[in-house]
Amino acid sequence: MLSAINPVSAKPRNTIPDSLQVLHFEVNGIPFSMQRVEGGVFVMGGTREQHREPISTDLPRHTVALNAYYIGHTEVTQALWQVVMNEEPLTLEGYNPNHPITNISWYDCQTFIHRLDSITNMPFRLPTEAEWEFAARGGNNSQEYRFAGSFIADSIGWILSNAGFRKHTVGLKKPNELGIYDMTGNVSEWCEDWYAPYQLGTEPNPKGPLTGTEKIVRGSSFDNCEANCHISHRYLQSPTQATNYCGLRLALTLPNEPSLQTAEEPTIVKKIKIQNIKIKLQYVVADTPYYISEEPISKRLWNKVMNISMNEEWAQTITDKTDNEWYQFLEKCRKMSNEPLCFASETEIEQAIKENITQLPKIKKNKQHRWEKNTQSIQRRRKNAKKAQKWADLIGVQIKTTDDPTLQLYTTPEKNNQPKWLVIRK
Q: Contact 286/156 with Cβ under 8 angstroms?
């Protein structure tokens, strides 16, 4: 995914030995492994490939920077849980060592991790919500899939359409771009964070609020339909609740990882004032981010800026102005607002419409006069008459042509009948 804000300094990829790209562990004969996820910057939340109309909990999209970390290749299995906790897991289907552990609360996960730390002498933990989503997207290798490794959910995960309402052995489906399995389907996974709505201006390595009532659960499970399996979808659950469709995946940060610094995150709405008219511009995440006005330029704003008396149609969108008139207007807007305003391009307008920031207005078309419809035919007759006049002069005949005052109308500057939006580009 192309990020809206680039890091000031980021650790180059693949700067550690290949042997440390994957960490291997074994506890009482039960092996598990973890994949390194290089630090990076990405746009988190309901990006366009995730859902045509993102739900409110997936918004606003915001830029997040993460340091390098490790995350489990698979969900924690019942076998690993048993050897660490020294008890047989509680499952509805019966014990299966290669199935993911479920029926555990968030607090149960903390107890498991504390005991695993004591056995391995490693600082394991649950992934943060941002770490989980970045890894599911494929990290810096992301191909911008809707699901974790594909645009087709049941090709990489056990979901409602193919799971048969039950859990399956971990790692059977195809992995995502980082070689991580089952981040779509099989079972959902606890994250470290307390739930809170997304905010712009997120600091690097976000960890969520300090307190709350519900914890974040990410990833779909075997009883989710494809419509609810996209990577950005957020779930929330009481930390004391244990269900048959929620498990955990381990995360780990090695000591002395370098920090990733990013530029300041922009605000979502920018407000400016032109001739005492307040204008709201919304932030749009793109290859080149920009703010775009929520409404196209109105006759009210045009008349104020150009010092023209108001009329009864002041709320309508302004059109039918020449390029020279448009740029006179823009130059005045820049001086009045002290902002680097520009007119939005077609691509910027299309994206803003897709993001539901604005919509195309209905333009009232002026009635076309008869002489406007016959512009080409009149010009063609005059051209032919000019050629024939020198022969007509020999016999003293004057060829009649369309009056010059009428033709002058055809040489006036061409007017632009498209609405325009104001933008401020980053």
A: no
- On whether residue 1 sits in a domain, the answer given is no
pLDDT of residue 185 exceeding 70, the answer is yes
Q: Please check whether residues 398 and 296 belong to one and the same domain.
A: yes
Residue environment code for 1-37, b if the CB has 16+ CB neighbours within 10 A, otherwise e: bebbbebeebbeeeeeeeeeeebebeeeeeebebbbb
Q: Dihedral sign for Cα 130, 136, 139, 145, please.
A: negative
Nearest by Cα to 232 from 250, 245, 219, 223: 219
- Same domain for 250 and 285? no
The domain in which residue 379 lies consists of 269-426
Please report, for residues 266, 296, 303, 316, the alpha-carbon distance to residue 136 in angstroms, rounded to integers and kept in the order given. 25, 38, 51, 46
Residue type, 333: C
Q: Which residues pair with 35 in a beta bridge?
A: 22, 71
247 plus 351 within the same structural domain? no
Q: Residue 80 burial (CB < 10 Å; 0-12/13-18/19+)?
A: buried
* CATH label of the domain that carries residue 238: 3.90.1580.10
* Burial class (CB within 10 angstroms; exposed 0-12, middle 13-18, buried 19+) of 190: buried
Same domain, 281 and 166: no
Same domain, 151 and 238: yes
- Give per-residue pLDDT as tens, 188-242: 999 999 999 988 766 789 999 999 999 999 999 999 999 899 999 999 999 999 9
Sequence-separated (6 or more) residues with CB below 8 Å from residue 52: none
Both 198 and 307 in a single domain? no
The span from the CA of 133 to the CA of 376, in Å, is 60
Structural domain total, the chain: 2
Q: State the sign of the Cα–Cα–Cα–Cα dihedral 277, 282, 283, 285.
A: negative
Angle of helix 106-120 relative to helix 78-85, nearest 10 degrees, comes to 70
Query: Of 204, 237, 262, which one is at a domain's C-terminal end?
Result: 262
Residue after which a domain boundary falls, among 204, 238, 262 = 262
pLDDT in tens, 47-58: 888 877 777 788
Q: Which among 125, 109, 17 has a CA at the least distance from the CA of 70?
A: 125
Instruction: Take residue 208 and report the two structure tokens written for it.
Output: 């969520």
Residue carrying the six token digits 């050629």? 387
Residue 4 has pLDDT above 80, yes or no: no
Phi, psi dihedral angles at 110 (to 5 degrees) = -65, -40
